[in-house]
Every structure is written in structure tokens, then in C-alpha cells.
Backbone:
């Protein structure tokens, strides 16, 4: 009996946040197995959140991810405020949205310029790319810095901001601390427009994902901080009903908890989903730039996610600019959030997708249970589906080239493995 | 390229949030210049190009939490000239070291439907518990300025100049009124290592100790002062049990 078997294995994927490996097994010309293995060790956040005060999850859960700490802080704050029956609105909500725009700019600029673009232009890293494209890389770094300056002005520092608290902020920035961001953002907006144009010239393989797309949707805004949960498959529920539409399962073949629909179907969250479900909520300047870049009102080509991220860079610069220009400090930097026994839900749009938190607290504010569902856990099954479909028609490629392209297909989704609140350690498959 | 050897830099990740290695990429103004002074030989988050060791300098982020980590950190030591541990995870075990005070098996069952798929150690420990570490940079996350000072010093062949005094000194230097004295806000500044620039008091909140204990810590006095301000033993414990819970100096105040 003769079989031709071929195995592609990348032990340590590069240019993603966190640790993961890829495994593709091919037997007799058929793709037998595709796995994105997560070996980021478990850190047990949901376990040690029990017994903490209801004021603590924003600072604690920020430490789940150094790339998107604000996403964790915002989903946590909103979930706890929901449990306590408090709404945060007005200038405080504007400040939250501004802080979040800073994170989108920082994270998307990092991904577009330093993690993703080198794939399209054939470099192993942005530092290598800078040898031939210095001005472009400098533009990306400057844009990234714009994001970090917003984070610093509102949050105190770029990574794990200190100024966020349940109910708002510890201190409202003075007008003089926010106003200088305007010049920065005007330059940032131009850089974002240039970015959209630049990435739209890349060569994109003609692939199409038929995933169910899931994102938040807000009544008037492009979704960042809050909204209802909607999908291309007709889901339209409040955040508090998230768990009626999406479940997590601990799948034996996988090393991670997979998010899926109750019937087992996979879905995708992130820039492609946000864009395709919220094109009508894009600011005019972003709609125009997207059209000029050749995007339609929906985008299901994962390779073009780099164009969508660039459009979202523009959204975040435009939004931040709008907030900065009208900013007047609030009378009080926070609203009181007295504890009461109950359960609260919060979701926001992390740069790489919807991030859901749920907390149970008792009457004195002690957290008794926590559930955190990060975007990459939700996307993992869809990323594997993508890879499976991607590999089959490319089996004629050399191992080296196929591996490179598969890595690229994974990076399309900007997986953030550190966000793996409960990604598992790598385990040996027991067949 | 010249024949003069350019020092090589490797960045390693263990259990962590990636924030400390991101700090290197957050040096937007210095990154390309730095890349001209050192050869970034192993930095998976940033580059697909990986050179074989040995490496002149290794930055290590994260804590040791699995049996594989124990072997891998030894490998890092073996292939590295200078090992610099960066951040609270790599200097004190990080927030995931809260398991050290609990039953790790119970934690696994609480989070995972199939605990049998999980391989983890009962404790989260810093690299220094396993190998000789040449230098430690504290913070959750580390400070960008301190990282650049450290890399610059290593390139120049001198010892990095990193303060070991408390946050209180930074508050005085910054001119921030003491939040504990003026407003009765519990603050860990007196026992916490400087480095952040006394950020939290400048934002009207007490220091929550993300840089870990300063070199000389008067734990008894801190405990008495917090109690005098009305902190219950539970509140005190929570304040100390975050990112540097197992660090000597914090462990005592909490316990």
C-alpha cells in the first residue's frame, strides 16, 4: 500500500501576538487535518477574579492582553455597571470612546505596518521592509505613536492605562491635555488615508470566506464601545442575551475553547465582520476611501482585511478628532457605581473582534463568577476553516511557499493569542 | 555590512500578556535606529526571520508555568550572553502567580470543561527561580524609558541606571500632593519601586504597586498606615495581591 503523506508544521508562528503553532496534514492529495495550535499557557483569570471587589476587574483583566488592554477595561466596566444598574453617558462616554480610538489606532497600525504588510511585500519583518521602504515604515510608526499618545493623554500610559475605573475615570484630563492631540490627529488622518491607498495596491488572492459574520452594531456610530450583537445570519440581540446565540465549547481535537453557534456552526468576528455589518455607519470620509480602494459594502476576502483595517484606522482618527475638538471636561470624572447583587454583561469591539464579559457580584460587590470570551477564541474555528479551504487548491506549491502562505492566511485574522484568557496548553492528541 | 560584530538581541516570551515586548515596538522614534545598532535575531512577535543562537542579549518576558517552560528557560540561559527579565511576570510571576496562593487544580476545573487536557504547574514563578538572571526590569508593564536605558547601557558595556527607590520620591519630584496624606486614599507608593513616574497619584488614585516592591520596604509600617486609614485586612490583601503578589516585601504586607 502506498500513500503519499505530507505534513507542514510551523512550531512557532511569528508576527502574531502570543504563541501558536500550525499543523497541516495532507494524505494522498487530500487535506486531512488542519490545526491552529495554541500553546499559550492558561493564566486562570476567571478563577482568580472570584473574591475580588467589583472595582477591580478593569485593572486585572487589562493584564490579559498588552495589545488591547482598553478593550478589556471597557468590556469589564460596562459589564459591572450593567450589574449595578448604572449607565455612563455624555462626556465620560466620549472619553471612553476616545481612549478606545487610541487603542484601535495603535493596534491596527501595528498590525497593518509591522505584522501584515511585510507578507504582501515579501519581507520577514517591518525592520527588513524599512531598508527598502523607510518612509512608509516611518509613516506607520508615526501613526502608531498617534494612538499611543491618545492612550497616554486619556489613560496615563499606552500599555495598561491607569486612569480607567468603573463609572468613568479617576481624573478627567484637562482641556489643555487633550487639545494638542488635534494636530497629531489631523496628520494621523492623512496618514490613514495614505495607508488605505497604499494597501489597496497589494496583490490579493481571490478567496472568499462564507463564515457567519458577527459584530456589535450601534444606532448611529461605527461600533467600538457598545451596541447590539448582530450577525449576517440574522442574529440581533442585546449584549445581555449574547449567550443565547453563542456558546463556547472545549473541543477535544483542539487546544482551545472554540466559540461557536449553538448548532455548532463557526462564525467570524473582527474587522471584516464590523465593516460588512456596519458599512452604513462609517463616517463619509471612510466610506469614500473604502470605495476608492475598491472595496464594496461588504468584504469577505480575508486577505483584504488589511484594507479594512486601514479604513478602520481612518474611522478611529476621524472619530477621535471629532471628540477632541468638542471636548470639555466633565464636572465629575466618574459616576458612582454602588454595588448590588446581580449579573452584568458587557461587550465592546476589540481591534480584533467582539470581546464579551459577564460578572456575577454579590450585595457587597464581591465578584462571585466571571466569564470572558475573547475574539480570538471565537475566531479560531473559522481561521481553521479558512486554512483548510486555502490549502486544498495550493498543494502544488513547495512546502516552504505553502507554509509561508498559510502563515499569511492566519495573520489575516490578527489572532491575539495572549487574549487567550482560557486558551489551553498544547496537549498531545490521543487518538 | 562591516566585519565588526553587531550585538544580537533575542526576545523570548513565556506566560504573559505580550505588553512588555510590545514596549520594544512602542519605541516608535527609536526602533529603526536601534535596529541599526543591534541585530534583532529572534523576536517572533515582530519577525519571521529567526537566526540561530547564541545571542548576546536576551530579553525574557513572562513567567514559568508549564513543564516545557522549565526546559525552555534553561535553553534561553544556555544560548544567551546576558539575560534580562522584563516585567512583573518575569520578575515576580505576574498576576497568574495568584494561583500560588490557591489550589491550581481547582482553578483548572473552574475555567475548563475538560481539565484533563490541561498541563500546568501548580505555581507561576519568575525565570530567576530557575536560572541565573543578569538584570531585572520591573513593571506591569515595564517603562519604555527604562528599557531603552537598559539596552543602551548593555550596548555601551555599562550597568543600566535604574532607580531602586520608592514611588514617593517620584511624586515629590513631580510635585504631586500625597494622595494618602491629603485625601486618605490607600497608596502603595511608599513600598513600591519607582519607574512609572508616579503615574497613579498624578491621576488622583493610589499607587497599586505594578512595579513591585522597592529595595527597602517597611512592610509593618505600611500595614499599620493602611489599617489606620480604615483598610480592612481583606482590602489590604486584595491591594497587595495583584501583579507582584509573590515578591518579597509585598508578600509580607499581604499576609
Residues:
Amino acid at each position: 500500500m502506498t500513500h503519499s503523506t505530507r505534513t507542514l508544521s510551523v512550531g512557532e508562528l511569528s508576527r502574531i501576538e502570543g504563541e501558536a503553532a500550525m499543523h497541516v496534514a495532507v494524505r494522498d492529495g487530500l487535506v486531512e487535518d488542519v490545526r491552529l495550535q495554541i500553546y499559550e499557557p492558561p493564566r486562570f483569570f476567571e478563577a482568580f477574579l472570584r473574591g475580588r471587589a467589583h472595582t477591580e476587574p478593569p485593572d486585572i483583566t487589562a493584564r490579559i492582553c498588552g495589545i488591547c488592554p482598553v478593550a478589556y477595561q471597557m468590556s469589564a466596566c460596562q459589564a459591572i455597571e450593567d450589574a449595578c444598574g448604572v449607565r455612563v453617558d455624555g462626556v465620560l462616554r466620549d472619553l471612553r470612546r476616545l481612549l478606545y480610538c487610541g487603542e484601535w489606532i495603535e493596534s491596527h497600525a501595528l498590525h497593518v505596518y509591522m505584522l501584515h504588510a511585510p507578507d504582501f511585500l515579501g519581507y520577514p519583518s517591518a525592520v527588513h521592509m524599512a531598508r527598502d521602504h523607510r518612509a512608509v515604515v516611518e509613516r506607520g510608526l508615526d501613526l502608531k505613536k498617534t494612538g499611543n499618545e491618545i492612550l497616554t493623554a486619556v489613560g496615563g500610559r499606552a500599555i495598561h492605562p491607569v486612569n480607567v475605573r468603573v463609572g468613568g475615570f479617576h481624573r478627567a484630563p484637562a482641556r489643555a491635555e487633550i487639545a494638542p492631540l488635534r494636530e497629531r490627529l489631523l496628520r494621523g488622518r492623512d496618514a490613514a488615508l495614505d495607508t488605505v491607498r497604499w494597501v489597496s495596491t497589494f496583490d490579493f488572492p481571490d478567496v472568499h470566506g462564507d463564515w457567519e459574520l458577527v459584530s456589535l452594531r450601534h444606532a448611529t456610530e461605527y461600533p467600538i464601545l457598545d451596541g447590539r450583537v448582530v450577525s449576517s445570519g440574522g442574529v440581533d440581540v442585546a449584549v445581555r442575551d449574547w449567550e443565547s446565540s453563542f456558546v463556547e465549547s472545549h473541543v477535544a481535537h483542539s487546544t482551545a475553547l472554540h466559540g461557536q453557534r449553538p448548532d455548532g456552526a463557526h462564525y467570524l468576528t473582527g474587522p471584516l465582520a464590523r465593516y460588512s455589518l456596519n458599512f452604513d455607519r462609517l463616517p463619509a470620509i471612510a466610506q469614500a476611501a473604502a470605495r476608492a480602494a475598491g472595496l464594496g459594502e461588504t468584504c469577505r476576502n480575508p486577505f483584504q482585511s488589511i484594507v479594512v483595517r486601514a479604513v478602520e484606522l481612518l474611522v478611529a482618527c476621524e472619530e477621535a478628532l471629532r471628540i477632541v475638538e468638542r471636548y470639555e471636561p466633565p464636572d465629575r470624572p466618574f459616576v458612582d457605581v454602588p454595588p448590588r447583587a446581580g449579573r452584568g454583561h458587557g461587550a465592546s469591539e476589540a481591534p480584533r473582534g467582539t470581546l464579551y464579559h459577564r460578572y456575577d457580584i454579590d450585595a457587597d460587590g464581591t465578584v462571585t463568577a466571571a466569564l470572558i470570551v475573547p475574539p480570538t477564541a471565537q475566531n479560531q474555528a473559522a481561521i481553521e476553516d479558512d486554512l483548510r479551504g486555502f490549502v486544498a487548491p495550493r498543494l502544488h506549491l513547495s512546502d516552504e511557499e505553502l507554509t509561508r502562505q498559510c502563515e499569511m492566511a492566519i495573520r489575516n485574522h490578527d489572532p491575539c493569542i495572549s487574549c487567550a484568557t482560557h486558551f489551553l496548553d498544547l496537549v498531545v492528541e490521543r487518538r | 555590512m562591516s566585519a565588526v560584530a553587531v550585538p544580537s538581541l533575542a526576545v523570548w516570551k513565556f506566560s504573559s500578556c505580550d505588553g512588555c515586548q510590545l514596549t520594544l515596538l512602542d519605541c516608535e522614534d527609536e526602533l529603526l535606529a536601534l535596529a541599526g545598532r543591534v541585530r534583532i535575531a529572534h523576536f517572533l512577535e515582530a519577525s519571521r526571520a529567526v537566526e540561530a543562537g547564541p545571542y548576546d542579549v536576551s530579553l525574557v518576558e513572562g513567567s514559568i508555568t508549564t513543564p516545557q517552560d522549565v526546559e525552555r528557560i534553561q535553553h534561553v540561559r544556555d544560548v544567551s550572553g546576558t539575560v534580562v527579565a522584563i516585567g512583573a511576570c518575569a520578575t515576580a510571576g505576574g498576576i497568574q502567580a495568584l494561583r500560588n496562593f490557591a489550589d491550581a487544580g481547582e482553578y483548572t476545573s473552574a475555567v475548563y470543561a475538560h481539565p484533563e487536557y490541561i498541563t500546568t504547574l501548580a505555581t507561576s514563578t519568575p525565570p530567576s527561580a530557575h536560572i541565573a538572571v543578569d538584570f531585572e526590569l520591573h513593571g506591569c508593564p515595564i517603562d519604555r524609558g527604562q528599557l531603552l536605558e537598559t539596552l543602551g547601557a548593555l550596548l555601551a558595556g555599562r550597568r543600566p541606571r535604574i532607580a531602586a527607590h520608592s514611588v514617593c520620591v517620584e511624586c515629590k519630584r513631580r510635585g504631586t500632593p500625597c494622595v494618602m496624606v491629603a485625601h486618605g486614599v490607600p497608596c502603595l507608593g511608599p513600598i513600591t519601586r519607582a519607574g512609572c513616574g508616579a503615574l497613579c497619584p498624578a491621576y488622583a488614585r493610589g499607587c497599586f504597586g505594578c512595579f513591585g516592591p522597592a529595595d527597602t520596604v517597611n512592610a509593618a509600617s505600611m500595614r499599620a498606615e493602611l489599617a489606620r486609614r480604615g483598610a480592612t485586612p481583606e482590602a489590604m490583601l486584595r491591594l497587595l495581591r495583584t501583579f507582584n503578589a509573590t515578591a518579597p516585601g509585598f508578600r509580607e504586607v499581604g499576609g
